[in-house]
Design a protein that fits this description.
8-stranded antiparallel beta sheet; extended; alpha+beta
């Protein structure tokens, strides 16, 4: 196949590939809802609406006037820290997200870093733990990531009933549940802590849920909104969701530390191990004695008595000698550099001999070596086993079959400290109906995720989706790629017969046919130049060399072409 024909074939193939690619693009743009995610426009967002009877609190943070009436910033100080940093002076503001996804969507933003901050609000009505589940759900966007700090909330216990109580909200304010993300360095957690009251003595103790089943590193660094959902049920089970995906679940009775119910028996704290109690399973044999021929001083290795120095060993020749070819450097100064010494090289005499220098017999294991003598161990006739204190009934034992029945909740608050500013909280809901929380998320969080997905989905990603449904696209692209690569390889590495012939004509002095593309005037001009050159050379040969002129050096001059040119000597 000629190059021109091959070129036509490649061009045609390229048009086919381009047509297939255009088809992919067109199909990807027109895929139905089963293949692509529908793009959500900014003006499609509306402030979520939920029947107030179905929620104990539903806060979207879109209404600044309502926010100011409901939420109260703490005016007290954190307990147990230096007064200079104890004040809750972190700043809270309603702002649009730094990455605007939905029009007119606002969130509660902690704008400051390295400051204690606290804000809270009363529930519309108290939540009493009886026969309905508790669902807590809210969004967090760590707009600048998170280095160290929390983004959790606290469900405050009854006793926090007025706005004045909210002004005194601090780290020791009683809470029933703490839930949400927390991170410092490489340690990241998703807290679920509830406070349980001992029914026997009234003391209150924190119970910490087991760790999630998967690592949640991305939520602290991707700077995207994430939805946190906690569901606690009357049957003592719980489920934690992140972005509507389960990351932890279990039982209030079995999956918390320390456990809700203490053990029925405990070790007797007053029991003591008897003085004659022997826990040694084996002892040194008291009747054993060291054998008389046991030499503890014998070395582990001795000189091989059968070793013989090899014949031809050069005892007086060193293995290394000064290099006889080395020369002292001309710039070596003995006063500054010290006395010069030639470098050492291998002694050439040693290469032909078994060895050089002092010969020493090798060491071998000493057959008489036994080491330090130790008496053998034998079973202990007085062994009684490992001692443990006796078990007694636990005086503090109780059996709470319903840990779900926690202290009533009357308020919710954020009491935080963070090294990263711009923490954004949004769309907080507390309800007893899982479907209500799901619908709230569909009106808020789901719209944001759809928007993020549509923005991130490039043409290539859409094409790949279409190709996944239509495998023939891969075949077209692969064939087209092979054709193009083959054409490039052929053009770069294929035969160059015609070009080589032209180059040979340019390099030879032989008589060749006239170029049919040259005009008569061009041919005549070339002949005239050749005649003039020959005449000049003949004249130079007759005159002989000019001894009066110095020979000029050959130099390269700018624009002189491939060869070197003689520079004319300068006249004196």
């Amino acid at each position: 196949m000629s190059k021109m024909a091959l070129l036509r074939f490649v061009i045609a193939s390229a048009f086919i590939v381009l047509a297939a690619t255009s088809s992919v693009h067109a199909e990807a743009e027109n895929l139905d809802d089963g293949v692509t995610v529908e793009t959500v426009e900014e003006d499609s967002y509306q402030t979520p609406q939920i029947d107030s009877k179905k929620a104990y609190l539903a806060e979207h943070f879109d209404d600044e006037e309502a926010f100011k009436k409901k939420w109260v910033k703490s005016e007290t100080k954190k307990q147990g820290v230096d007064d200079t940093i104890a004040k809750y002076d972190g700043k809270w503001e309603l702002q649009t997200p730094a990455r605007r996804l939905l029009k007119d969507d606002f969130g509660l933003v902690l704008t400051t870093e390295a400051k204690h901050a606290a804000i809270s609000a009363l529930l519309n009505r108290p939540f009493v733990f009886s026969d309905k589940p508790l669902i807590v759900q809210y969004e967090v966007t760590m707009q600048e990531g998170q280095n160290c700090g929390g983004a959790y909330l606290k469900l405050l216990s009854k006793g926090v009933n007025t706005r004045n109580d909210l002004k005194q909200f601090h780290d020791q304010t009683p809470y029933t549940i703490m839930f949400g993300p927390d991170k410092c360095g490489n340690d990241n957690k998703l807290h679920f802590i509830f406070k349980h009251q001992n029914p026997k003595n009234g003391t209150i103790e924190e119970k910490h849920a087991k760790k999630p089943t998967q690592r949640l590193d991305d939520i602290y660094k991707d700077k995207e909104p994430h939805l946190y959902t906690l569901i606690v049920r009357p049957d003592n089970t719980f489920t934690i969701l992140v972005d509507n995906k389960e990351v932890n679940s279990g039982s209030l009775l079995e999956d918390f530390t320390p456990p809700v119910n203490p053990p029925e028996e405990i070790d007797d704290p007053n029991d003591r191990k008897p003085e004659d109690w022997d826990e040694r399973e084996k002892i040194v044999d008291p009747t054993a004695t060291k054998p008389e021929d046991w030499d503890e001083d014998a070395p582990a290795q001795i000189v091989d008595p059968s070793a013989v120095k090899p014949t031809g060993w050069l005892d007086n020749e060193p293995e290394m000698i000064p290099d006889p070819d080395a020369v002292k450097p001309s710039d070596w100064e003995d006063e500054m550099d010290g006395e010069w010494e030639a470098p050492l090289v291998d002694n050439p005499l040693c290469s032909a001999a078994p060895g050089c220098g002092e010969w020493k017999a090798p060491l071998v294991a000493n057959p008489s070596y036994k080491g330090v003598w130790r008496a053998p161990l034998i079973p202990n006739p007085n062994y009684k086993g490992k001692w443990t204190p006796r078990r007694i009934p636990n005086p503090h034992y109780f059996n709470d079959e319903h840990p779900f029945r926690m202290t009533t909740i009357t308020a919710v608050g954020f009491e935080l400290w963070s090294m990263s500013p711009q923490l954004l909280f949004d769309n907080l809901i507390i309800t007893d109906d899982e479907e209500v929380a799901a619908e709230w998320a569909r009106q808020t969080y789901t719209l944001k995720r759809d928007r993020i997905t549509s923005q991130a989905e490039s043409l290539v990603e859409r094409g790949l989706k279409f190709a996944g449904e239509n495998p023939w696209v891969y075949a077209v692209v692969i064939i087209g790629s092979f054709i193009i690569v083959g054409f490039v390889a052929y053009m770069c590495c294929g035969p160059r017969t015609q070009e080589l012939e032209v180059e040979d004509v340019k390099k030879t002095d032989a008589v060749v046919e006239d170029d049919p593309h040259q005009s008569d005037e061009e041919r005549e001009e070339e002949k005239t130049d050749e005649s003039a050159e020959k005449e000049k050379q003949s004249k130079a040969d007759l005159e002989g060399p000019d001894d009066t002129k110095e020979s000029a050096p050959l130099i390269d001059t700018e624009g002189a072409g491939d060869g070197q040119r003689k520079r004319k000597p300068r006249k004196e």
